[in-house]
Amino acid sequence: MTDHHKLADLRKTYEHGSLDEEAAAAEPLAQFSAWLGEALAKGLPEPNAMSLATVGEDGRPSSRIVLIKGCDERGIVWYSNYASRKGRELEARPFAALQFHWVELERVVRIEGRVEKVSAEESDTYFASRPLSHRIGAWASPQSEAIPGRGTIVARAAEYGLRFGLNPPRPPHWGGYRLVPDYWEFWQGRASRLHDRIAYQLENGAWHKARLAP
Fold first, then answer.
1. Which of 58, 102, 115, 179 has the least C-beta neighbours within 10 A?
2. Annotated catalytic residue, options 64, 163, 193, 211
3. CB 100 within 8 A of CB 181
4. How many domains does the chain have?
5. Quick check: pTM over 0.85?
């Protein structure tokens, strides 16, 4: 049994890096690309994993882990089931927050902005690049819906595998999302909890950089 009383005593000292205003890139995409590149180069476990937070019509937030599949000046892309809980929430309130946590580098990146669907052509191209089992899985899973048991999904996967063979088309309920950022924050752990936080806010088409208190 876990001794929950000891959770409050857990401590970590952050001493691996620093980030100041002069060293940070003029635009957040360049800074993100540099940090993501470093995470990839160091072989961190799942450096492409990011938490995605959305808000329902009732005002309740929810979060889950998704994988980044693209990043450029247009925004950050991931793929999912449009009929899932996150899909329904984004349909009602098309804004979200993303967060990367690269523990080994003692770094966090937070991103906020408006969310839109990527084009059907982009979704088709990415879907075709996925392993066959993943493409069948997109058909088999009624994501976020209650099901009787795992056997339901296994049976549905077999059914769609027989129906489509080696060339399943992209389901109409599955595709990409793009978050168009208007806020970025880069957090670098430092000693004595005096962490570095550099934020970028989009104002009138230009990025404004500022240091935030830790």
1. 58
2. 193
3. no
4. 1
5. yes
